[in-house]
Structure formats: C-alpha cells, structure tokens
C-alpha cells in the first residue's frame, strides 16, 4: 500500500512512510492552528500535520474585511506563525490540498486521501474545516463582479477589482456586510446595503443595537435598505446594477454578498458522524464516533456558558470560540477533561465604531441601555431573570471588560443602577 | 532592524529580531513568544497582549490613545504605570525595546 505523502509545503518535514503518523488536522484555520499550538504547549509528542486547501500559509481572517481590504496592513501581518515556529515544533504544513476521501478505522486512525492523490495516514483526526459562504441565488448572481468575502483569495480579488468601481452593493446587513461596506466606503465608493430582514445584524445583536447601527451608518452616508428583496442582478458579462422587487434599480460594478455561512460537514458525513447544524460534539469536542476532534465554526457543541440551560446546544462562529474550543480539544487528546474557559466574546469594527460583545444574549427578557452620545459610546446590557447574561458595547471597552469579568466570576450587575453612565459598571459587580 | 527583549513572569528573557513597522505583539506571536496572546490580531479588542515596558523605554514610545487606555483596565493582570498593549507599539529602525510579560493574559 502506498502511504507516501507529497512533500510538505512548509514547517517540519512530513513523517517517513510507515512510521507512526500522529495527528492530522484538516483545516489550517484559526481553530486548526490553535489546536496544533495548544497540543505542543501541553506536551503532545506525536507528529502533527496541519493541512489546508488554500495556497497560503495559515493566516488570520478578521482583518480581511477591514484593515487588509483597506490596505492598512499587508498579507505578512496576517500570518499566524513564522515558518521557523512550525519547524521547531515539529508541525508539518500542507497547503493547497483538499481531502476528498477518508478511510477510517474503529480505533480513530485512518488514511485521508487528497485531491492531489496524496495519502495522509493518521492515528488521530481533527476536523477544523470551518464554514463556507452561503451562495446567493438570483438571476445574474453568477456575473463577474459578484463576490464573497470569506478567505484571503476572496479579499485579494475584491481588492483587485475595487479601484475600477464607483458603486458597490452589499447584500446582507450582518457583520461581514457592514464591515466590508464601511471599508469600501472609506475607500471612496458609494455603498448601498440591502438587508432582507427588518434590522441590521439581526442574528447577533438585540433590536436596540441594530437600531443604533442603522442610525450611525446612515449618518455616515451608507444607503441602507431594510426588508428589501433583490429580484435580479443585471449586467452584460459583468454586473452593472442590482434590481429590487420594489422596482428600484441600484447601479453597481461590485456586488458583495455576505448572507451567512454553511458549516462544512461533508467530511463528517463521510465519516458517519452525527450531523445537526454542523458536526455534533460533546463537552470535550469529540464527535459521535468517540475519536474525531471537531473544533470551531463547524462544531455544534453544548452551550459552554456557565449556567446555560442544560442540554442547550450552540454553534459559534468566532475567533474566540475557535481558540477556546481548540484548547478544550487539545486537553481531550491528552486524556484530560478541561472545561471551556472564559465567556464567549465577539468583536466587529465598522467605520469608527468598535463593537465588542460579551456573552450570549439569547433568552434575554430585559435590557438596560447606557449611552454617552458625545463620546460615541453605546452599551446594551442583557438580563435573564434579573441576571446579566451579555452586553453589546460600542466604543465602550470599560463596559465590555466589566461585563466580561462579571460573567466569568458568575456575578451580576445591578440593573437598577446600571443605566447611570456616570457610574462605572465595574463598581456595580456583585 | 529592531530588537525586542521579552522577559517572562519567571524572569527568563528571550531576544527576538523585529521587522521595522511591525508591532511588538505581532513580533511576539509570530515567533511563539509565550506570555502574549493577541487573540484579536491587533485590532484593540481583546487586551491579551498586555506588557510592562521597561521604565527607561516607556517615555520613548508614542503616547497611548483613549481606547488603549480603557482596554488596559480590563487586562487579566492589573495594569501598572508602565503598562501598554503591545499591539499598539510599532518598532522603529534601530530600536531596542525591553518588555516584561504578565503571568497570564486571560
């Protein structure tokens, strides 16, 4: 049997054929990188192969819609680790390879086969395969100039076509859409945002925060349409306009689609793992076969927040989750049970607004708002049965930090006193 | 060329060559310096790249902005007079910087 692998494209040399092969991590993502790093920090001695389907060294995604798109940082700034790091830590990087088939054994070992034909034997497997952008299907959605923004190649393409465009339509008023819209506006484009739902970022923030962003973005010149439906995208080869069901026609040389992602469950399905809104894992980030580690955006996991309703499950799309979930998986591989650390948090930078979210607001029954308009500060605190569970904080890091500490310590912030912006939230933690 | 000396909580110092224009955080993370996390990649959102700058170097740095100042109140180890977020310190040609990392960032 031929188990030779292609030469590695970075990091440490691949293990020789026929030797113990260690861990294969499919997905050179934030979670894949963190899993490899955490395992080395914990003393894992097996070989680690970190394999990704992109032709780039493992890199950080968040800046793609912001600083990188605007040319404020270069590609080198996005790289997670120098090549020396990977070599010194005996981690082999494989770039530009997509796993198409996995032959697994009951003990969790197996052989993965890539599109190149190369075979990657492993003693343990981790899937950190993330998610892919949901495609937008209307007549004309395959025209040149209709783009997505998930990975570095998407961002490079958008950067390449941006200079020639004057008008951009962004489809989707979520984080990616609004971050990219703000960036493109800062680059001098006339930007229109088309949102299908009744409010912005409806999946991640409460109504008050949505309303705040709507007002602020409109004041900064973004043209935002809510409850709007695209009937078709028009153009001759390349996009020239977007037609709404209302009859309105908006000129556009670029249409950027940001309407959410779909977890990449294909390999999990092939392995026969339980699938439900992602790949289902237990508290230790282990899938239903009892062996495969599944981490990050693709994993449907028990809600990790202390005090969350028993049995509640969640799939989180965030850097913070990728990092913390990977640590849980690293401990599990070392035979240790370690609880998910910290409180889930998220950030999104849009124009001069820095949004930080602490905790998960689902299930809230009341809110308290703190606003200092002259400083551009805006905070919404979310409570469930009188207990604080989350906060959306715009340009208000002190509020964010206070809520994060209160949640981590299992404490509360008195809602009756929290509306007074002269009082620091930190002093109300009890 | 620039140089950064990172001294960890236990007093061990590691010297790393930095590219001019890169931040202290980027330099640390890319080279696997333990003691600096930089979860948000330098967008001033996470306060996990806290360092204590050597007093003789502290004055030579550009002053911190309001956001950095506020974020420093949320670091895992309490701030001191010479605290900075290392994502906000960009290295200059010929500069040698001495920083100490806290016991924990999270």
UniProtKB/TrEMBL annotation, chain A:
Residues 23-325 form the FAD/NAD(P)-binding domain. One of its GO terms (cellular component) is cytoplasm. It comes from the Bacteria. Keywords: FAD, Flavoprotein, Oxidoreductase. Residues 345-428 form the Reductase C-terminal domain. InterPro entries: FAD-oxidoreductase/Apoptosis, FAD/NAD-bd_sf, FAD/NAD-binding_dom, FAD/NAD-linked_Rdtase_dimer_sf, Reductase_C. Pfam families: Pyr_redox_2, Reductase_C. Its cofactor is FAD. GO terms for molecular function: oxidoreductase activity, acting on NAD(P)H. This is Ferredoxin. It comes from Glutamicibacter soli.
UniProtKB/TrEMBL annotation, chain B:
Its cofactor is [2Fe-2S] cluster. Residues 2-105 form the 2Fe-2S ferredoxin-type domain. The keyword Ion transport does not apply. Keywords: 2Fe-2S, Iron, Iron-sulfur, Metal-binding. SUPFAM superfamilies: 2Fe-2S ferredoxin-like. It holds the Pfam family Fer2. GO terms for cellular component: cytosol. One of its GO terms (biological process) is P450-containing electron transport chain. The keyword Iron applies. One of its GO terms (molecular function) is metal ion binding. Belongs to the adrenodoxin/putidaredoxin family. This is Ferredoxin.
């Amino acid at each position: 049997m031929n188990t030779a692998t292609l030469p590695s494209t970075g990091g440490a040399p691949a293990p020789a054929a026929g030797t113990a092969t260690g861990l294969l991590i499919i997905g050179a993502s934030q979670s894949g990188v963190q899993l490899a790093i955490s395992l080395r920090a914990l003393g894992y001695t097996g070989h680690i192969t970190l394999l990704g389907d992109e032709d780039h060294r493992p890199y950080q995604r968040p800046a793609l819609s912001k600083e990188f798109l605007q040319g404020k940082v270069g590609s080198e700034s996005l790289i997670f680790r120098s090549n020396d790091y990977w070599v010194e830590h005996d981690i082999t990087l494989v770039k530009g390879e997509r796993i198409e088939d996995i032959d697994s054994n009951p003990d969790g070992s197996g052989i993965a086969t890539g599109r190149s034909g190369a075979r990657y034997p492993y003693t343990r497997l981790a899937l950190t395969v993330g998610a892919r952008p949901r495609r937008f299907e209307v007549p004309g959605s395959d025209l040149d100039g209709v783009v997505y923004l998930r990975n570095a190649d998407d961002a490079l393409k958008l950067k390449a076509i941006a200079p020639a465009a004057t008008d951009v339509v962004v489809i989707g008023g979520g984080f990616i859409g609004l971050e990219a819209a703000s960036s493109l506006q800062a680059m001098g484009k006339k930007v229109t945002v088309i949102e299908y739902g009744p409010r912005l970022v409806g999946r991640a923030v409460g109504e008050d925060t949505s309303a705040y962003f709507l007002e602020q973005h409109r004041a900064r010149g973004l043209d935002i349409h809510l409850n709007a439906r695209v009937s078709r995208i028009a153009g001759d080869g390349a996009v020239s306009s977007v037609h709404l069901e209302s009859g309105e026609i908006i000129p556009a040389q670029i249409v950027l689609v940001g309407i959410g992602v779909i977890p990449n469950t294909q390999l999990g399905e092939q392995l026969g793992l339980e699938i439900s809104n992602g790949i289902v894992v237990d508290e230790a980030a282990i899938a239903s076969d009892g062996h495969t580690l599944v981490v990050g955006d693709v994993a449907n996991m028990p809600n990790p927040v202390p005090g969350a309703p028993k049995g509640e499950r969640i799939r989180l799309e965030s850097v913070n989750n990728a990092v913390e979930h990977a640590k849980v998986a690293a401990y599990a591989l070392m035979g240790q049970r370690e609880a998910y650390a910290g409180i889930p948090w998220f950030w999104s930078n849009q124009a001069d607004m820095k949004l930080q979210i602490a905790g998960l607001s689902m299930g809230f029954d009341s809110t308290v708002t703190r606003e200092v308009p002259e400083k551009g500060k805006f905070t919404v605190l979310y409570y469930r049965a009188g207990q604080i569970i989350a906060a959306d904080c715009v340009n208000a890091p002190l509020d964010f930090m206070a809520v994060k500490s209160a949640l981590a310590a299992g404490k509360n912030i008195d809602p009756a006193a929290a509306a007074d912006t002269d009082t620091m939230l930190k002093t109300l933690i009890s | 060329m620039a140089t950064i000396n990172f001294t960890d909580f236990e007093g061990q110092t590691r010297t790393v060559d930095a590219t001019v224009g890169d931040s202290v955080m980027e330099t640390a993370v890319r080279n696997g310096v333990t003691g600096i996390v930089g979860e948000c990649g330098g967008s001033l959102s996470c306060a996990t790249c806290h360092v204590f700058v050597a007093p003789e170097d502290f004055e030579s740095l550009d002053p911190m902005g309001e956001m950095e100042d506020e974020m420093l109140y949320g670091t895992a180890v309490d701030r001191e007079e010479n605290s900075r977020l290392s994502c906000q310190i960009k290295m200059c040609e010929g500069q040698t910087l001495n920083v100490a990392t806290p016991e924990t960032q999270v």
